[in-house]
Automatic annotation (TrEMBL):
SUPFAM superfamilies tied to this protein: HIT-like
InterPro entries, per the entry: Histidine_triad_CS, Histidine_triad_HIT, HIT-like, HIT-like_sf
Pfam families: HIT
Domain HIT per the UniProt entry, residue ranges: 8-118
Organism superkingdom: Bacteria
Protein name (record): Histidine triad nucleotide-binding protein
Residue window of motif Histidine triad motif: 102-106
């Protein structure tokens, strides 16, 4: 999957599509998912044009990498899921279920989430 400058997150970053912003700093943006899968469902994205975590960790600078992970923790606290627990998920590539070709991590919380992958 190649980076598409017209993907929905690139458009949000350019201000072409609105979002319900939770947090923003120089390197990241966090906003509520438009189709939440849990009572709390927030996306955190880097502002740079990175396809996936693999791409991000290979090309991003240390400040961008630190900012993304600090933003995730900050947002989890801001939306009130830190105390009871939450899930962090990033889908990568076709087999991982990635739908938007821009690195994004999901913060899920607000209820007991259950198993991600069934026991065999």
């Amino acid at each position: 999957m190649a980076y598409d400058n017209n993907n929905v997150f690139a458009k949000i970053l350019r201000g072409e599509i609105p979002c319900n912003k939770v947090y923003e700093d120089d390197h990241t943006l966090a906003f509520h998912d438009i189709a939440p899968q849990a009572p709390v469902h927030v996306l955190v994205i880097p502002k740079g044009a990175y396809l996936s975590m693999d791409d991000f960790t290979a090309r991003a600078g240390d400040a961008e990498i630190a900012a993304l992970f600090r933003a995730v923790s900050t947002v989890a606290k801001m939306v009130g899921v830190s105390e009871d627990g939450w899930r962090l998920l990033s889908n990568i590539g076709a087999n991982g279920g990635q739908e938007v070709p821009h690195l994004h991590v999901h913060i899920f919380g607000g209820k007991r989430l259950g198993r991600m992958v069934p026991k065999e």
